């Protein structure tokens, strides 16, 4: 399979710098509400009756959600106070509300997603993780530029059932503002815990958030997940085929709610912070009823908003959107069919599904998307002094998938082996090639990078990234500035079933 037949993100409307510019988006209504599917009425399906027996492959949901639609709800927020963010994240299995009933989930303190953590550059995150589930866990602060050692963002920590661990994660004074997230990273248990519901957003606010347009916008946190729906822990049991393809859930949720509805008034701007916290599912996002305006990526805000017609979000990726609410009616963020390849028939495909809708009321009114965002800028691509090549591959297997292996540079993960040795102060261009038949999102800890070239040019991001899709049979080149933080950390495929099966490598950075 090649990238030729794929619809990809960042088909820029912007031919010229004028682009989105100071375009007034008043009256821009896109498709009519009649074209959108019924997102306001509950679907007839019961919310909690579909239980997956262990080992049974559930079909990707291309149809109505199992739960009824609900009102949009934000996760709880824990903010730093006087430079310190104090939080306790208790990993515990619980029944959580879903539709008219409940579903089983892994939670932080009874909630999925966990609380949103809001901090500022220079803050200390003091996060106590208490493990009350029956398998080991830990915590990764995905995207943060922090130390990977000790009790900082150290994925080699293991917190056994019944025990706890205190993380102290120091943000540097010059940390970029942006949308980051946290989730367990205990090798071998990651896909089950994240698919079960253990994830939450981290927002770092900096001066770029003081832009008057952004400051006046209504901010929404959107944690996209796709849980399997059931009444016990069998929902995190998966078949070999699920593990090969990467498990997909029964229903797509935003902050735990299927197809939530936002009520808004015309003349306002909405700022949506999205994270794809699904273990394997890709979202190919389009917007009906409003333009799709990208203002930020994994590594924070870009200097200029970019109008796009679709946005691919692989697992682990974040995006910030600005949604102008200009006329009464429905605005719907929808994910279209996307085929990420796979060893089995349709293992990695996702059908069309509505993600979240906004119901606007009021007279037609302007909502102006600014040409630039004050204080937001992407640093220039630094000059490189070295190159490095990595290869993603899948081997073995065959019919039924027994023994399929997931490798980087021909090896599966070994925490005691250093796969790449890096030197502080270097700037390298990495080429990650995918010789397998399915897409793999590549994620590196500690740093953000500049995607400078790719086999599919639509993957060249205008913003900083820590996770990038590497298409089946394709490649991606990025520039990595190896600044700060010696120590051992990892890069890996963010299809979490693949990571758990060893598609991960260790790098060590020294002075
Ligand atoms: Cu993968």
Secondary structural class: mainly beta
Bound molecules: copper (II) ion
As a percent range, the share of strand residues is: 35-45%
Overall 3D shape:
globular
* CATH superfamily annotation of the domain at 386-510: Cupredoxins -  blue copper proteins
Counting DSSP H or I runs of 4 or more residues, the number of helices is 4
Share of helical residues: under 10%
**Low-pLDDT stretches:** 1-67
The major beta sheet can be summarized as: 7 strands, mixed
* Neighbour order of strands in the largest sheet: 12-11-10-14-19-16-17
- Give the rounded overall mean pLDDT: 86
Task: Measure the end-to-end span.
Answer: 42 Å
Reported CATH architecture of the domain at 386-510:
Sandwich
CATH topology of the domain at 386-510: Immunoglobulin-like
The counted number of beta strands is: 33
Written overview of the protein:
- The protein has 511 residues and is mainly beta.
- The chain has a domain at 386-510: Immunoglobulin-like (Sandwich), CATH 2.60.40.
- It is built from four helices and 33 strands.
- The chain has helices spanning 190-196, 212-216, 240-245, 496-500; strands at 77-79, 84-98, 101-108, 116-119, 124-131, 140-142, 164-170, 178-183, 200-204, 218-225, 253-254, 257-258, 261-265, 268-276, 283-288, 292-297, 300-308, 311-313, 318-325, 329-336, 338-339, 349-350, 353-361, 386-395, 405-408, 420-423, 427-434, 440-444, 449-454, 467-470, 475-481, 487-493, 504-510.
- The longest helix is centred in the middle third of the chain and has 7 residues, at 190-196.
- Mean pLDDT is 86; it is low at 1-67.
- Bound molecules: copper (II) ion (CU).
């Amino acid at each position: 399979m090649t990238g030729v037949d794929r619809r990809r993100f960042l088909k820029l409307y912007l031919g010229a710098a004028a682009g989105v510019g100071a375009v007034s988006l008043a009256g821009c209504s896109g498709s009519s509400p009649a074209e959108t599917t019924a997102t306001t009425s509950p679907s007839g399906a019961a919310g909690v009756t579909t239980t997956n027996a262990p080992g049974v492959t559930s079909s990707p949901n291309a149809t109505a959600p199992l739960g009824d639609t609900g009102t949009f709800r934000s996760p709880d927020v824990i903010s730093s106070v006087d430079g310190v963010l104090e939080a306790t994240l208790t990993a515990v299995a619980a029944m959580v509300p879903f539709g008219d009933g409940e579903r089983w989930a892994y939670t932080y303190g009874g909630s999925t997603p966990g609380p949103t953590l809001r901090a500022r550059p220079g803050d200390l995150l003091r996060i106590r993780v208490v493990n009350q589930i029956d398998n080991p866990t830990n915590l990764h602060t995905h995207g943060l530029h922090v130390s990977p050692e000790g009790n900082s963002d150290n994925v080699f920590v293991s917190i056994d059932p019944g025990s706890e661990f205190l993380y102290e994660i120091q943000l540097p004074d010059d940390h970029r503002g942006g949308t980051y997230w946290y989730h367990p990273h205990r090798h071998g248990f990651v896909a089950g815990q994240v698919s079960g519901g253990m994830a939450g957003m981290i927002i770092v606010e900096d001066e770029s958030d003081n832009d008057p347009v952004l400051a006046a916008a209504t901010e929404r946190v959107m944690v996209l997940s796709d849980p399997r729906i059931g009444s016990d822990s069998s929902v995190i049991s998966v078949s070999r085929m699920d593990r090969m393809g990467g498990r997909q859930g029964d229903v797509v949720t935003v902050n735990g709610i299927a197809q939530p509805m936002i009520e808004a008034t015309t003349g306002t701007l909405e700022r949506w912070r999205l994270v794809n916290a699904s273990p394997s599912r890709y979202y190919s996002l389009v917007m009906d009823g409003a333009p799709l305006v990208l203002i930020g990526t994994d590594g924070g805000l870009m200097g200029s908003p970019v109008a796009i017609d679709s946005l691919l979000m692989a697992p682990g990726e974040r995006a910030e959107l600005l949604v102008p609410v200009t006329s009464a009616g429905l605005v719907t963020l929808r994910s279209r069919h996307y085929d990420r390849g796979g060893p089995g028939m349709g293992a990695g495909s996702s059908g069309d599904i509505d993600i979240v809708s906004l119901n606007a009321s009021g007279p037609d009114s302007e909502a102006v998307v600014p040409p630039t965002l004050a204080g937001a800028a992407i640093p220039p691509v630094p000059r490189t002094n070295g190159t490095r090549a990595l290869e993603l591959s899948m081997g073995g297997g065959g019919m039924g998938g027994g023994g399929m292996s997931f490798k980087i540079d021909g090896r599966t993960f070994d925490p005691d082996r250093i796969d790449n040795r890096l030197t502080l102060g270097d700037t390298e261009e990495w080429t990650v090639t995918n010789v397998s038949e399915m897409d793999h999102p590549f994620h590196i800890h500690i740093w953000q990078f500049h995607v400078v070239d790719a086999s599919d040019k639509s993957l060249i991001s205008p913003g900083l990234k820590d996770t990038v899709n590497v298409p089946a049979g394709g490649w991606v080149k990025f520039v990595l500035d190896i600044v700060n933080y010696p120590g051992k950390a990892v890069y890996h495929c963010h299809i979490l079933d693949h990571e758990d099966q060893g598609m991960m490598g260790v790098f060590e950075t020294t002075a």
